[in-house]
Amino acid sequence: MNRMKTTIEIPDALAQEAKEIALAQGATLRELVISGLRAEVERRSAPTAVQDFRLHTVTGRGLRPGVDPQRLTELAYE
User: Fold this and answer.
1) Rounded to whole angstroms, how far apart are CA atoms 21 and 35?
2) Tens digit of each residue's pLDDT, the chain (78 residues)
3) pTM score, whole prediction
């Protein structure tokens, strides 16, 4: 396996906590960082599930003419 050597800056408190966890588990800081980075890359690479969304109305006949569903979404987040 090829390896790339790189330098990253992380907060001191996080580095200390990571060292303590690695030591307690009999691992190295390198192993902890590699497994954590691998898990994060997999999580971010996984396709996000598309939620099927239906806008339910009181009468069941949909939105009134002229009502823009995109504008409703924008207003909901204002």
Assistant:
1) 13
2) 798 999 999 999 999 999 999 999 999 999 999 999 999 999 999 888 777 777 676 776 777 788 888 888 888 887
3) 0.57
Is 23 part of any domain? yes
In order, the DSSP letters of 16-78 are: HHHHHHHHHTT--HHHHHHHHHHHHHHHHHSPPPPPP-----SSSS-SPTT--HHHHHHHHT-
Domain that holds residue 26: 12-45
